[in-house]
User: What shape does this take?
Amino acid sequence: MQDFGDAFGLAFGLILTGDADLAEIVALSLRVTLVAVAVSCLIGFPLGAATAILRFPGRQGVVVAMNALMGLPPVVVGLLVYMMLSNAGPLGVLQLLYTPTAMIIAQCVLVTPIVAALTRQTIEDMASEYDEQLRSLGVGPVGQIGTLLWDARFSLLTTALAGFGRAIAEVGAVITVGGNIDHVTRVMTTAIAVETSKGNLGLALALGFILILLAMVVNGLAMTLRSQWMARAYG
Amino acid sequence: MVDLALPQGAALASRRPILPLQATGLSYATTQGTWVGPVDLSIGAGGVTVVLGPNGAGKSVLLRLLHGLLEPTSGSVTWNGRTADRDARLRQAMVFQEPVVLRRSVAANLRYALRIRGLRGAALREAADQWLDRSDLARLARRPAAVLSGGEKQRLALARALCGEPEVLFLDEPTANLDGASIVSIESLLRTARDLGTKMIFVTHDLNQARRIADDVIFMASGKVCERAAADAFFETPETPEARAFIDGGIVL
Assistant: This one.
């Protein structure tokens, strides 16, 4: 219990004193995660909606694969992205390994299936209600995808937050492709891992509290924006 | 006095009409049995054709086959001699028993339908405002459609169907779950549509409503059209035992 008390004190101390190293780590964590989630949403929303609306051979297989990929092991994803980006890999020429961009790519691979699978379920449920009405209005499949994505926008924010939760808490992939280099690729989770391995359990725990706080703040902000957005959308 | 001239009205009037509608050998069957057919019928322009019959007669399935929401097992539907294309589809509309409203404001629901029909800018806003007034929804224009009452939702669904000035409007028991006041207001909107020249094909099992609105009646039982007649003749002297039993309140199986 004393460890927890000390860790809380340390965490608040770091926040209140505006520790520069901590601020840098938090900023990079947020940048990597938010960019990865944004890219994943750009891919996952239309992909999930298209899978929900369109009927094509092998669709059921795509749905099963999408759901299965939600449980991708981060370390395996990190290893695959590492192999792609290493000098011997097909994208080695880009020299992205051990950069924040590599971490974003790894997180995209992890988060996109989550966003796509949850979007597919949300849109499929809504489509069962909308289907006849939209077809009666003369709306084709592409128009239906756009309409359903727009009408599901408030639900899809929760999907994006699920992706954010996965990305911000992830360590295996980003440490493999980012390398946890101080002032370059060190983020909250990799910092916690390295402090734990050094035996600095108090600092690691403090960083853990700050990470949880960060996730709560982002979720709180998103929910507040959602409420204001809904109020504005409906006047 | 309501101005019935719509911004897009002239453009629609100049096109080749899609009626008469012709169904030939139309049937719909699943592994559970035959729901409709075979049905042969022709429906021309103007007035209200009521499709009447007991529950399970196949009225709603027939409506969906005519509107193109269901693919017939056999037979065909032609519109003025042509198979339904996108133009013919855009000149039809349908209102369902359970109104489906988009998760947007009332006004945005109308704008959505108008945009599909190619309206933009001032013409779109003008048409939307006009139908908000006609459907008595102007004071609710900015409210989320999802929070409307059942009657208001159905008025919105009807206004959204009518705002594109369809040549044919299919209605699948649109007042089945509504109270008296809501039914009066829906039927008032339907009179507006009739004045605009919209052909209405109206499914109901409510005899009183059929007497109020029908110009002619298609009576169905067990998936087949049993009788087709002008409304007065049908209610005065029904020709088939099924229709007579239905009008007399007997059970039709």
